[in-house]
Specification:
Blueprint: H1 12-35, E1 44-48, H2 54-62, E2 67-70, H3 73-83, E3 89-92, H4 101-107, E4 110-114, H5 117-130, E5 134-139, H6 156-163, E6 169-175, H7 184-203, E7 213-215, H8 222-227, E8 232-235, H9 237-240
Parallel strand pairs: 1-2, 1-8, 2-3, 3-4, 4-5, 5-6, 6-7
Helix pairs in contact: 3-4
């Protein structure tokens, strides 16, 4: 793994491919936002960096993209030192086991996968010890797939009510993982349902008026998610290429 003072093992072509992909994704996200009647600045691109080496992530951060998300706590901790000089805003976007809360809070500024009261209480209790705060999203399983984490939409109000009592945590909005459909007609309801749920919960006062963020959409469908109100899209393979699971 390279250090800030050592040459990158990536070739010039590798670097050019990443930066070119970054520019393309940013342009597409901006165009999708403007097509939906919003400013391009209303949508942030989160770099989904699962399995990606720190060297590739550095290229993206040095190109001006400051927001990264990891699915696993061990990847956050494993890459933190190599990226510390670039001070990225790091989100945990995968499931969080309660026994990994301590490690997560050392490096993540936001947890997007809060889906049970016990997990939220564990996070808040640890923050009391550290005398710190953290941002969070409520993860909602809008596709209702058994294989996915997240609270059922009809149970989100109860969960949010419980987490709002926790003084160390600031709710930013809702997150979902869309249905991996083959057409917009299949995919769209996962995102429109989250937007509608957010509007309902804010209008009723269950969720703070400022908790307007919607984290939804990935490489294959982020423009559709933006059309349905996404304020943050999680893009990885469109930027870094296929993930290496070896």
């Amino acid at each position: 793994m390279s250090t800030p003072d050592s040459p990158s093992p990536l070739s010039a072509d590798d670097i050019a491919a990443i930066t070119g992909n970054l520019d393309e994704v940013a342009d597409r996200a901006r165009a999708a936002a403007e097509s939906s009647g919003r400013s391009g600045d209303d949508v942030r691109v989160l770099l989904a960096t699962k399995t990606q080496p720190a060297e590739k992530i550095r290229v993206a951060l040095e190109h001006g993209f400051t927001l990264i998300g990891e699915n696993k706590v061990q990847e956050i901790t494993g890459k933190a030192e190599a990226l510390a000089d670039l001070n990225p805003e790091t989100h945990l976007i995968g499931p969080l086991q309660r026994n990994k809360v301590n490690h997560t809070l050392r490096h993540a500024q936001c947890i997007q996968s809060v889906d049970t009261p016990p997990l939220a209480e564990k996070i808040n209790n640890r923050l009391d010890v550290l005398d710190e705060t953290v941002d969070y999203f409520i993860q909602v399983n809008t596709s209702r797939e058994d294989s996915k984490f997240g609270v059922a939409p009809e149970d989100a109000e109860e969960l949010i009510t419980a987490t709002r009592e926790l003084g160390r945590m600031r709710l930013r909005g809702l997150m979902t993982i869309g249905l991996p459909g083959s057409s917009p007609e299949e995919i769209r309801p996962s995102y429109s349902d989250l937007r509608e749920l957010s509007e309902k919960l804010r209008e009723s006062g269950v969720m703070p008026a400022e908790a307007t963020e919607l984290s939804m959409g990935m490489s294959g469908d982020f423009e559709l998610a933006i059309a349905e109100g996404a304020t943050m899209v999680r893009v990885g393979s469109s930027i870094f290429g296929a993930r290496d699971y070896s």
